[in-house]
Automatic annotation (TrEMBL):
SUPFAM superfamilies: Pseudouridine synthase (SSF55120). It comes from Oligosphaera ethanolica. Keywords: Isomerase, tRNA processing. Residues 1-26 are annotated as: Disordered. Belongs to the tRNA pseudouridine synthase TruA family. Residues 1-12 have a biased composition (Basic and acidic residues). Substrate binds at residue 138. The keyword tRNA processing applies. This is tRNA pseudouridine synthase A. HAMAP family: TruA. GO terms for molecular function: RNA binding; tRNA pseudouridine(38-40) synthase activity.
Amino acid sequence: MANTCTDHHNDDAEPAPDATAPTPPEQTWHLTIAYDGSAYAGWQVQTKQKTVQGELRTRVRLLFRSPELKVYGGSRTDAGVHALDQQVSFTAPTPPDMTPDKLVYVLNRWLPDDIMVLRARICPGAFNPRYDNAGKAYTYCIAPGRRVNPLFARFVWRTPRPLAVPAMREAAALLTGEHDFSSFAANPGYELESSVRKLYRLDVSEQHGLIFINAVGESFMYKMVRGLAGYLVHIGAGHAPAADATRVLAARDRSQAADSAPPQGLFLAKVFWNDDEWRHYEPLIPPFTLI
């Protein structure tokens, strides 16, 4: 599905309050943000816990003087998961001098250093990134059996031993395609009509002593990517042959796969707006170069 939002570029001065001015017309905004999720209990607002959505919503409500404003995200990332391309929307009364450049400037002054607004757009109609996207890509980072530079240690899963990458690739090929992925979702069937998903790509690559799992799909169930990553590490560690992936898929039972990978190695890497955009996608490796 094509993204119909339009870019605007004007001044970036902060808006001045005007108590006598009439209420401005509502506009739907579309933001792209990045964040280091290490200090957050995930994207979604939670009671008494710091979340990315909560931090962003507080600032947006202040900026637009709209205490009931709702902020929607394209992916409900888990606690400790990071994002390079999280998509956000909200609708708010928007003064004529509130431009996308100005919004980016002000929010980035107000937000904590581990959350950054990359881009802002005004949409001509209704828009919700959770439902209006055409697919997503995630990258999972692994340090197999080795110490890593402490400057990026919090962005990788350090496994206790080296991993057999060829076996991981063989299993990944068996998992690619349209399948029932109940065996890899934390809550199979939760709020879902179907647990069948189309996985366009599941690649395993090596660079600089690290292993990267790239998952590209139409949509993903809750903790599905972490489930896939944990299972591929299970295969790479020699706990099962690559062909076991076929059995696990057919079982449609979460207990038949390995434990999920921990959250710190996972990045929401890219959101697609056009149906074939994923075909030309090349993941940023390593993804934490943008954090």
